[in-house]
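Many introductory courses stop at the sequence. We go one step further.
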Amino acid sequence: MKNIYFIISFILLLTISCSIKSNRKSVAIKTNVVISNDTLNDKYEVLNDFLRTRIDDKSKYFVIFSEKINTNTTLKWLLHNDIYTIDSITLEIKNKDSEFFRDSEWEIAREKYSKKFTSTEIKNKTFNRGSCCWLPENFNYKNLIFEDLNIGSTAYIKKYLMQTEDYEYYSFSDPIFYMNNRYLMFSFTHGSARTITSHSSNLVIYKKQNGKWIQTHIGNPDFVS
């Protein structure tokens, strides 16, 4: 009888031990999936590189609108096909690139990022609002004010337009991939938080070169929405 109890106890211990090992393995796999999410890392990389080229004084505070620009805006400005190459170091505009936009590649991007809308609807509609939301952990800069208020609202006017201190603001769309992930692009708006009628809007295009995302093009350099 003692031998039977011993065998049963041994089997139970072995089963529990295997179960613990299996759970540990499962947790490790899930952790690796989160850590190795290259798509998000790429998107954050281009946004932070863009801010690096724009912000000279890292001690200044800048407003980032939490709500993202609709990705249909990015598709619309790409469809507008006013694309220019830029110097990756000085960021000076060089030449118009009439070869960058391709109908077939644009359709692939539309199918991936905007299944609800046809090309005609995207071309003719104005897309302002996007999805939530940019968070502090998405950016490398500490002196950023993440703003949830809508421009023009009573609370916004009281907070910014009626104060003496002014801030530059940025609003970004989610970066989207183009041409089989060779390019990442996003639309942005930049202006004064207090002078809301004056701002600039552009399409920014990055290409991965030698393992690093480099800005190679800009779209609608004179476009103001």
